[in-house]
Design brief:
The complex is a heterodimer of chains A (253) and B (392). Chain A is an alpha/beta fold and 253 residues long. Chain A is built from ten helices and ten strands. Chain A is 36% helix and 24% strand. In chain B, the strands form two sheets. Chain B has a two-stranded antiparallel ribbon with strand order 1-4. Classes of the chains: A alpha/beta (253), B mainly alpha (392). At the A-B interface, helix 2, helix 3, helix 4 and helix 6 of A face helix 9, helix 10 and helix 11 of B. The complex binds adenosine-5'-triphosphate and magnesium ion.
Chain lengths: 253, 392
């Protein structure tokens, strides 16, 4: 890891000239993007634009062929694995909600809590009042208090989405990568999710991928449109949605 | 929120299991030693030894269930750790024979004299001491599992690939131990044991003591497994089993967790093997046969994967059936029956005996307690987000 005082950028997340290809297919093409600390950024783009792949790169799941990926201005994420990146404080919600289905809602949150994650720490773990209070608070925030003892696998799709957001809250990372949080939610739930993300944004940096334009509009943040693995347009939602090339890409499908 | 480790790991089923094992561990030896020979209340010595063998298998099954049932690591080579523990004990027993061997050599076991070796190979040093052998029973399987696991888990070898290389591991050991120049008695293995800690291994008293010790080891192994699976670490293991990559993204070092349980499990298998050898009176390379390891996995599947009690039960039930059938006219067909049993269990009882029982019993229990609770609790309490719409 680089020395902390040699910050190359002020950005919390910084991608520059990133390339990824899968068997010759260029999923990410010269992608450059910067997220300032405390910022919330919405990422839009047609299917296959590379939005999820970008999150895979940031979280260490996919190694880029080329390019720079920096966290906090100095940490080279391309050299670290998923665990280390999560430890640094990058949390992720997956496009397909991924919770631990055979465990209770409460245990899912317990597993996500950012406490000692070593073998010894978990083997001799004895919960504390502070921990259970945090879990209670998250349960309240995601409105699953009454479902705390239910198996996560028995939740509805929307509830799983919320549980996964709750896991992010419990993890309390510096940066949250949220992939399609409102897929399968009702309008009311979508609205609540937007409110929740805005709330979380008060002290976290967030990158959120979403197709639902009402939702993106409600967030009211800077929008980046990806297409064929690179940035097509960037700006306010009105600027981006009136951009000719963006319109073309979306209508041309 | 977190009860004491004992209350946490000892639910009713676990307590019942321990009481039964402990009860048998005491009653069977007592009946063998105190009841008059031939009386219907006397358990004959050969049965004590046979059941002692089952108990050792139950420990092996527990060790497999710990990694397979709770962490999703399907080892098809656990028989190797069992056999290594067995060999470590066998080496001690060989050296106890001393000059009572056929060739009367005070130091060299018979097979070495037969091979015209003039001195003890270095790796046989220390095995004349029980404490050293006991240490090796844990250390050798543990170290092999640690090295093997370190390589495999770090390279993220999982699923069927991992199963295959564990098979290869036990097969390689099988070939090695078959060789005379390997120094472990080759084809014949180690046998003709005389005594253990000064007691004649054939004596009724020794057999009863070994049986009791095996039951004790089963209880301890069970308690260790329960402590592990009911801790937060157990939740992490299940998380790894169900969604390994998700667990990584939460900041857990998955390979370290796997390495920990795999090594722990190998040590348990080693102890099982060490208790097995003095009771059956022989250890030879066939214990490394890949089929043995697969059979042990079948016990766990039959009893109920991820239940611990089921694993132990499966080991006893299947081996009892094996003894029953292989001593009768159906003997040549045992392997077919075992195969058929496995297929039937997979199709009809995918959760195994205990798993199926739980699936049937728990909702019933829940309904009964819910019936009581429903009167007190208002119907207004509904689950989380009201009527979510799963449409996409
Ligand atoms: N591991 C992989 N192997 C091969 N191709 C891949 C892999 N991962 C992604 N791709 C391809 O890369 C492209 C970008 O995929 P990605 O999932 O990042 O798109 P997305 O923008 O998230 O789309 P969506 O809106 O549908 O989620 C797609 O064409 C996909 O098929
Ligand atoms: Mg996607």
């Amino acid at each position: 890891m680089n020395v902390m005082d040699t910050r190359a950028t002020s950005a919390m997340l910084y991608l520059d000239g990133v390339h990824v290809s899968f068997d010759g297919f260029h999923a990410i093409n010269n992608l450059s993007l910067a997220l300032e600390p405390g910022e919330m950024r919405a990422i839009i783009g047609p299917n296959g634009a590379g939005k999820t792949t970008m999150m895979d790169i940031i979280t260490g799941k996919t190694k880029p062929d080329e390019g720079t990926v920096l966290f906090d201005g100095s940490v080279d994420l391309t050299r670290l694995d998923e665990t280390r990146i999560a430890e640094l404080g990058i949390g992720r919600k997956f496009q397909k909600p991924t919770v631990f289905e055979s465990q209770t809602v409460q245990d899912n949150l317990l597993l996500a809590l950012n406490v000692d994650h070593s073998v010894r720490g978990t083997l001799f773990w004895r919960g504390s009042k502070g921990e259970s209070e945090r879990i209670d608070k998250v349960l309240e925030t995601i409105r699953l208090t009454d479902a705390r003892n239910r198996l996560a696998g028995s939740l509805s799709h929307g509830q799983k989405q919320w549980l996964e957001i709750g896991m992010l809250l419990a993890q309390d990372p510096k940066v949250l990568l949220v992939d399609e949080p409102v897929a399968g939610m009702t309008d009311v739930e979508t609205h609540l999710t937007a409110e929740l993300l805005k709330q979380i944004n008060k002290n976290h940096t967030i990158m959120v991928v979403e197709h639902d334009m009402t939702f993106v509009r409600e967030l009211g943040v800077k929008v980046t449109c990806l297409h064929e693995g690179s940035v097509l347009a960037e700006g306010s939602i009105d600027q981006v949605s009136s951009n000719e090339r963006v319109v073309e890409v979306y209508l041309g499908r | 929120m977190t009860p004491h480790i004992l209350t946490r790991s000892l639910d009713r089923a676990a307590t019942t299991f321990i009481l039964i094992v402990a009860g048998l561990g005491v009653l069977i030896p007592l009946s063998n030693l105190l009841m008059p020979q031939g009386s219907m209340f006397q358990v004959p010595t050969y049965l004590v030894a046979l059941w002692g063998k089952y108990v050792c298998y139950a420990i092996l099954a527990l060790s497999i269930d710990l990694i397979w049932g709770y962490c999703g690591i399907l080892s098809l080579g656990h028989g190797a750790f069992f056999a290594l523990g067995g060999y470590a004990m066998g080496m001690y027993l060989m050296r106890q024979i001393g000059s009572r061997g056929v060739y009367g050599n005070p130091v060299l076991p018979d097979f070495m004299v037969f091979l015209n070796w003039d001195k003890l190979p270095w790796y046989w040093y220390g095995f004349d001491k029980f404490w050293f052998a006991a240490l090796m029973v844990l250390l050798v399987p543990g170290l092999l599992a640690f090295c093997f696991g370190w390589l495999a888990f770090r390279s993220r070898v999982t699923g069927v690939y991992l199963s295959i290389i564990t098979q290869a591991m036990t097969y390689a050991l099988l070939l090695g131990f078959f060789r005379n120049d390997f120094g472990f008695g080759g084809n014949n293995g180690l046998t003709d044991f005389k005594d253990i800690l000064g007691f004649n291994v054939q004596a009724d008293g020794t057999r009863c003591a070994l049986f009791l010790l095996s039951c004790l080891a089963l209880v301890i192994a069970f308690l260790i497994c329960r402590a592990v699976v009911t801790s937060k670490l157990g939740k992490v293991l299940i998380a790894i089993r169900d969604a390994e990559s998700r667990t990584r993204f939460l900041g857990y070092r998955v390979e370290t967790y796997k390495l920990f349980v795999f090594t722990l499990s190998a040590c348990m298998a080693g102890v099982a093997g060490a208790l097995y050898v003095p009771q059956v009176g022989i250890i030879n390379p066939s214990e490394f046969a890949p089929a043995n390891s697969i059979e042990a996995v079948i016990w766990v599947a039959v009893g109920g994967r991820g239940t611990l009690v089921g694993a132990a039960l499966g080991a006893v039930v299947v081996n009892y059936a094996k003894t029953f059938f292989t001593s009768g006219p159906l003997a040549p067909y045992w392997l077919f029956m075992l195969g058929a049993l496995f297929i039937l269990v997979t199709l009809l009882l995918p959760k195994g005996i205990v798993g199926t029982f739980n699936a049937w019993w728990e909702p019933w229990k829940a309904r009964r307690s819910a019936g009581i609770a429903a009167d007190e609790e208002s119907a207004a309490r509904e689950d989380g987000i009201g009527a979510p719409n799963p449409a996409e």
